[in-house]
Design goal:
The chain is of the alpha+beta class. Helix content is about 35%, strand content about 30%. The protein has four helices and eight strands. The chain has helices at about 1-20, 45-55, 115-120, 150-170; strands spanning about 40, 60-65, 70-75, 80-90, 95-105, 125-130, 135-145, 150. A six-stranded antiparallel beta sheet has the order 2-3-4-5-7-6. The chain has a two-stranded antiparallel ribbon with strand order 1-8. Helix 3 packs across helix 4. The protein is globular and about 45 Å long.
Length: about 170
Amino acid sequence: MKFRTILLGCAALACATGASAQNTVKARAPVAVAPANTRLVTSVTEADLAALIQAEGHTVDATHPFEEPSMRGKTKDGLLFVLIGTACNKNGVAGCQGIMMQIRYDSNDTVTTDNLNASNLAEAALSAWWDRSDKTVGFTRYVVLDDGVTWMNIRQNLRVLLAIAPTAQGYVFK
């Protein structure tokens, strides 16, 4: 019974703390100011997304290609990819606590659910998806920043997306 009382007390404290934290978003310095690769990142801004693209030697192709904050990057080979900040300004944390990294293609008649499933099984590091109404096929890698991720880890996640997407594309478009 003592454990249950402690557990309920902790839950009540967490709820009370969470409710008050939601009302106060703490400002933070942007990562974009030359982050050290080992720096712990708990949230990002649109400027940070641009810095990520540039840190990997790519160019920023568009600002706000989707909802804000989002950036579109372009590799030296011309591959376009999108970085979208998610879970922004929540629970007292300034900036976005998630990054959705995507490569999108126009759908065609060769795309099937079976092909998407084959891609997801073969290349589990990415999620393949198909928006039939929008005629778009995409490959996504999602990075959760809660409690911190190193800047290098975020860079590595982008590298994985860009390295694996061409192989995954081969499964989807047959």
